[in-house]
């Protein structure tokens, strides 16, 4: 059971709440909050669900972020927020009203349209499967089938970046760059605009590798996590990127979403 001191940020949605949670997570990165839980409440359909949620949030000194399209449920949240003095943030409401006012149109008010099982949905599922099956250079032949090819040394977030881009519907292959490993010849057969080289500050990479070894219960004073080895790998990677003529993205201190945004903008 959570301690009473744990505050809550409740994500309330009549669909799955992914949009509101993404906004909440992006915002919370700007703060150093402790004892704070993000709780997602999905598929809300009745006012009594909102009443229970708001009372819990009130008792825990939290706030509610919501994406609700049904007018009666939106009104219930507003009423409860006033009654219980709970701060709420409406993610979709202002945007919907702006579209209504600007284009004189009426919203469908159907929950979950963003995640309906359409062609885009199945394309994303296929892309995720592709990324998982071709993680870390498992199949070099997949390079020729990919929309995006990520190159980088160990621990520059190639895998999570691949999965994030896959959720955007892009088929991604990521391939490890190691001085002792000859890069696949297929890289020379594809358009260089599909290839993205990832680099990072050497000192930060040393820290990341050391933390990873520590988490695995392994010694941290090994060649893999030494500054000399890291600098050697990064220098080799840069020479490979130069030879391929591909864009290079420095991921130092960047969130996965930020790096993905740069790639999608270029793509």
Outline the structure in words.
This protein is α/β, with parallel strands linked by helices. It has 9 helices and 8 strands. The chain has a 4-stranded parallel β-sheet, sandwiched between helices. It has a 4-stranded parallel β-sheet with strand order 6-5-7-8, with helices on both faces. α6 (158-166) links the parallel β5 (148-152) and β6 (172-176). α5 (119-133) runs antiparallel to α6 and α6 packs across α9 (256-266). The chain is globular. This is Putative pyruvate, phosphate dikinase regulatory protein. ADP binds at residues 152-159. Its EC number is 2.7.11.32, 2.7.4.27. Belongs to the pyruvate, phosphate/water dikinase regulatory protein family. PDRP subfamily. Bifunctional serine/threonine kinase and phosphorylase involved in the regulation of the pyruvate, phosphate dikinase (PPDK) by catalyzing its phosphorylation/dephosphorylation.
């Amino acid at each position: 059971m959570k301690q009473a001191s744990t505050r809550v940020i409740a994500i309330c949605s009549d669909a799955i709440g992914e949009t509101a949670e993404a906004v909440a997570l992006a915002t919370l990165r700007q703060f150093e909050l402790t004892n704070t839980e993000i709780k997602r409440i999905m598929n809300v359909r009745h006012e009594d669900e909102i009443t229970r949620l708001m009372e819990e949030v009130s008792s825990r000194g939290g706030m509610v972020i919501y994406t609700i399209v049904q007018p009666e449920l939106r009104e219930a949240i507003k009423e409860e927020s006033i009654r219980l003095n709970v701060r709420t943030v409406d993610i979709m409401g202002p945007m919907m009203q702006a579209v209504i006012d600007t284009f004189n149109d009426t919203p469908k008010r159907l929950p979950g349209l963003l995640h309906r099982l359409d062609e885009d949905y199945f394309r994303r599922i296929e892309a995720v499967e592709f990324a998982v099956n071709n993680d870390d250079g498992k199949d070099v032949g997949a390079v020729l089938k990919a929309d995006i090819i990520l190159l980088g040394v160990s621990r520059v977030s190639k895998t999570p970046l691949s999965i994030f881009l896959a959720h955007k519907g892009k088929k991604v292959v990521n391939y490890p760059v190691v001085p002792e490993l000859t890069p696949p010849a297929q890289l020379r057969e594809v358009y260089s605009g599909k290839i993205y080289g990832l680099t990072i500050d050497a000192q930060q990479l040393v820290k990341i590798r050391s933390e990873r070894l520590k988490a695995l219960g392994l010694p941290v004073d090994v060649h893999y996590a030494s500054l000399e080895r890291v600098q050697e790998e990064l220098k080799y990677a840069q020479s490979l990127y130069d030879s391929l003529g591909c864009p290079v993205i420095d991921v130092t201190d960047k969130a996965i979403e930020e790096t993905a945004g740069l790639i999608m903008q270029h793509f």
